[in-house]
């Protein structure tokens, strides 16, 4: 059975209300089109995992899809704050959310532990920091060889991980290049993996042999969405729409403006709209 | 002498602290500008690392985020994020961590998490990102921020990243083996920690800045070094390099679809 299917189906078949879900992409290759499809299908009570929640989670939180967010940097990178997420934390609007806050090192280690099939991640971290006082998931462990006290956090095991990639081949192998982020770890840590790609090519002949990051049998579904990372970027295809990130600061700062923007650009749109958005980038 | 703004003086003073031998973990904002001015002037061989995994990067414009494509295109190598934090940062391969701050105290402890109570915050800030481990795993920490009563405070609301704690040997007592905050560069002055108490002390005032100006914009009682110096004004090369970089950056970021 082919793994290639329209994004509408890939989301419907792989996500359920109440799931724990990761959307990864470290500035590069953020799966915005998949996020918008999840919003359109109106899932509820999701636990969202992401190192830097940024615009994609600001939108989901603002639309009331999330009950809990596990994260390490809740900012619009290079611009400022996440105003919808702040509204949820500070004012419970549109609903209160639970937050579980980590450092980047902890999140990266937790994904890696999940991919490795371990229950926990161990690293040298959080020394002197206040996060362990407010996040009971951060504990310490004593090295049995040296006696050093190290930090530990539970492994991430998402029900579903969504990522965006440059391309897949007809078999369903997935290729990523550029800033590779934490996607391989997030995908291998998850029970199901949905990948949006810019294009599907017959095979990967002639390409650098180390570029394939996910063999087809580790991927649950693949959907072609041209421009699917916008306003993030896809290395080799289109650049980051920095102006859109700056503009988001204004849109997200106002509840009504946000609702109007989401209605026009997400609820009434389709995945095909992304191809238009990257023209000229 | 060219005219310059306090912010330009801050960035240039910070850039002067870096050398070609340094391996520097770069925060976004003022640290990124300072690191790239250093690279474009007196420290061409400096290794700049951004937490997106780009090692030895040399961008033509300042990135808006830590993961802009140009960082990867100009890098010696790009590694996965878990590798960045495990092998490179935790592995002890980075000499200087360069951080900005929303709130700082006199011992270089930094808060970028919340203003007010954590569970009922007055203002929810972005949080630490890489900072908690950068602050303890890099050889030493440089900090840059614009002086203001609300950002330089007697007591920070949340320890996002640990500096010298309560001062003295607090780092050693926690088993932290790196030096911690070694330099604070503001728009008015250069500060270094006292060798014993670890309290930040003003060692150099930028041109035209008085002791009163430093005190008025700082929430704790400021200590000044006995042999207080004056920071040399920016040179023509430094100011031109910074302004050109910022102009290229402005054009690139405003560009978006219209470009």
What does this structure look like?
The complex is a heterodimer of chains A (about 280) and B (about 260). Chain A has about 280 residues and is of the alpha/beta class. Chain A folds into 2 domains: about 5-100 and about 155-275, Glutaconate Coenzyme A-transferase; about 105-155, no CATH class. Chain A has helices spanning about 5-15, 30-40, 55-60, 85-90, 105-115, 130-135, 185-190, 240-250, 255-265, 275, and strands spanning about 20-25, 45-50, 65-70, 75, 80, 100, 120-125, 140, 150-155, 160-170, 175, 190-200, 210-215, 220-225. In chain A, the strands form 3 sheets. In chain A, strands 1, 2, 3, 6, 10, 11, 12, 13 and 14 form a 9-stranded mixed β-sheet that branches. In chain A, strands 7-9-8 form a 3-stranded antiparallel β-sheet. The longest helix of chain A is centred in the C-terminal third of the chain and has 13 residues, at about 255-265. Chain B is of the alpha/beta class. Chain B has a single domain, classed as Glutaconate Coenzyme A-transferase, CATH 3.40.1080.10. Helices cover about 30% and strands about 20% of the residues of chain B. Chain B is built from 8 helices and 14 strands. A 10-stranded mixed β-sheet of chain B has the order 4-3-2-1-5-10-11-12-13-14, sandwiched between helices. Chain B has a two-stranded antiparallel ribbon with strand order 6-7. Chain B has a two-stranded antiparallel ribbon with strand order 8-9. In chain B, α2 crosses α8. Chain B is globular and about 45 Å long. The relative contact order of chain B is 0.16. The model of chain B has no long low-confidence stretch (mean pLDDT about 95). Chains A and B meet through β5, α4, α5 and α8 of A and α3, α4, β9, α5 and α8 of B.
């Amino acid at each position: 059975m082919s793994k290639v299917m329209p994004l509408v189906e890939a989301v419907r078949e792989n996500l359920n209300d109440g799931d724990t879900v990761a959307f990864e992409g470290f500035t590069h290759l953020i799966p915005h089109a998949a996020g918008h499809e999840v919003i359109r299908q109106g899932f509820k009570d999701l636990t969202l995992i992401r190192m830097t929640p940024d615009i994609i989670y600001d939108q989901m939180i603002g639309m009331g899809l999330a009950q809990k967010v596990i994260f390490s940097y809740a900012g619009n990178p290079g611009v400022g704050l996440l105003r919808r997420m702040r509204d949820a934390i500070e004012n419970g609007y549109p609903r209160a959310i639970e937050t579980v806050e980590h450092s980047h090192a902890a999140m990266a280690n937790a994904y890696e532990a999940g991919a490795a099939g371990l229950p926990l991640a161990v690293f040298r971290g959080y020394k002197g920091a206040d996060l362990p006082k407010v996040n009971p998931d951060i504990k310490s462990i004593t090295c049995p060889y040296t006696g050093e006290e190290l930090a530990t956090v539970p492994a991430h095991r998402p029900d579903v991980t969504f990522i965006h990639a440059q391309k897949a081949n007809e078999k369903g192998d997935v290729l990523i290049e550029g800033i590779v982020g934490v996607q391989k770890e997030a995908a291998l840590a998850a029970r199901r993996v949905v990948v949006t790609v810019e294009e599907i090519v017959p095979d990967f002949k002639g390409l650098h042999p180390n570029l394939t990051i996910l063999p087809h049998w580790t991927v649950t579904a693949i959907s072609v969405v041209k421009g699917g990372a916008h306003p993030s970027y896809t290395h080799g295809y289109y650049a980051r729409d920095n102006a859109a990130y700056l503009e988001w600061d204004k849109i997200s700062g106002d509840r009504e403006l946000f609702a109007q923007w989401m209605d026009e650009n997400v609820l009434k749109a389709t995945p095909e709209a992304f191809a238009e958005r990257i023209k000229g980038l | 002498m060219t005219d310059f703004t306090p912010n330009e003086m801050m960035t240039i003073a910070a850039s002067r602290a870096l050398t070609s031998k340094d391996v520097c973990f770069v925060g976004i904002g003022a640290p990124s500008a300072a690191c790239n001015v250093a690279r474009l002037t007196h420290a061409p061989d400096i290794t700049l690392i951004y937490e997106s995994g780009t090692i030895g990067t040399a961008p033509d414009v300042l990135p808006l985020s830590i993961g802009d494509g140009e960082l990867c295109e100009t890098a010696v190598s790009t590694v996965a994020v878990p590798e960045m934090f495990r092998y490179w940062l935790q592995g002890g391969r980075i000499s200087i961590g360069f951080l900005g701050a929303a709130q700082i105290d006199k011992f270089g402890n930094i808060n970028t998490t919340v203003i007010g109570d954590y569970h009922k915050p007055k203002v929810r800030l972005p949080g630490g990102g890489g900072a908690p481990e950068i602050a303890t795993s890099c050889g030493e920490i440089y900090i840059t921020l614009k002086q203001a009563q609300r950002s330089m405070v007697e007591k920070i609301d949340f320890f996002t990243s640990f500096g010298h704690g309560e001062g003295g040997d607090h780092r050693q007592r926690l088993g932290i083996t790196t030096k911690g905050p070694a330099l604070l560069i503001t728009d008015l002055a250069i500060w270094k920690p006292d060798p014993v108490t670890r309290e930040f002390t003003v060692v150099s005032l930028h041109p035209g800045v008085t002791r009163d100006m430093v005190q008025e914009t700082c929430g704790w009682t400021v200590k000044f070094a006995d042999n207080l110096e004056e920071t040399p004004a920016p040179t023509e090369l430094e100011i031109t390099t910074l302004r050109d970089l910022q102009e290229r950056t402005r054009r690139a970021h405003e560009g978006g679809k219209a470009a």
